[in-house]
Amino acid sequence: MEYFKGIEKAVYKGKDSNDAFSFKHYNASETIGNKTMEEWMPFAMSWWHTLASGSSDPFGSAAATRPWNGKEPLEASKMRVEAGFELMQKLGINYFCFHDRDLAPECKSLKETNEKLDIIIGLIEESMNKTGKKLLWATSSLFTNPRYMHGAATSPYADVFAIASAQTKKTMDIAKKLNAKGYVFWGGREGYETLLNTDMKRELEHLAYFLSMAVEYKEKIGFKGQFFIEPKPKEPTKHQYDFDAATTLEFLYHYKLDKYFELNLEVNHATLAGHTMQHEMQVARNHNKLGSVDINYGDTFLGWDTDMFLTNIYDAVFMMIEVIKNGGLKNGGFNFDAKVRRPSHTMEDLVYSYIAGMDTLAWGLRIADKIIRDGFFDKFIEERYSSYNSGIGAKIESKSTSFEELFDYAINLEEKGLPSGNQEMLEAKLNQFIYNN
Question: Is 279 a catalytic residue?
Answer without folding.
Answer: no
